[in-house]
Amino acid sequence: MSSTQGNDDVRVEARPHPLTIDPRRTAVIVVDMQNDFGAEGGMFARAGIDMSGVRAAVIPTAQVLAAARQAGMPVVYLKMGFAADLSDAGGPEAPNRIRHLDAWGVGQLVIAPDGSESRVLIRNTWNTDILPELAPQPGDRIVDKHRFSGFFETELDATLRAMDITSLVFTGCTTSVCVESTLRDAFFRDYRCLLLADCTAEPVGNGLSRSNHEATLLLVELAFGWVSDSAALVQALSEQPVAAAV
What we know:
single chain; alpha/beta; Rossmann fold; two-stranded antiparallel ribbon; 8 helices; 20% strand
């Protein structure tokens, strides 16, 4: 991947040092900002998980998405969900399958807020729909995944390569699980990774803690990329001319 700086590059204030990115070759990754993790009636809410951190990340994430689209940056949504028959959750002894069934009741029939039938963490249901405040726009990409990492057995890498993407901006939840898993896999594939601290979140409960969020920020800063926030990225992009319509 080329590191040559071009005339359209922007400098984003970040840790451990500022990061220069080309908006045309940078994609925003929105990890699992879906009803099961951030809406009343979803999986976390039903388990009594404190979702305030996830909810707090919605507005800054929306601001980043608006600025990114204005700058012509691709937006890629990841959605965590399994096939209706759980055929992609792993075999009977697979830890992924066992833990999702035991801890979260994956596949359980539930009633969505609109009164329709839905199922916990199953694709193409209300539970795995993106939060309305962050709804995908025309031209955005959506990649379904069935493991914590968005790169595992998905078309994510091929999609990014086809767009000539070299840098990724990470938003979403949960910070220490699906966000970090995907970011690490991106690092292993030589993408430059920028994690936005206020656009990522760690809920509280069932073994999850906000201290995990801080640990991931430290690990990314030390070993896997850069850490910044929504204000710094929006400011950097605002200094760019408006992208021409494609």
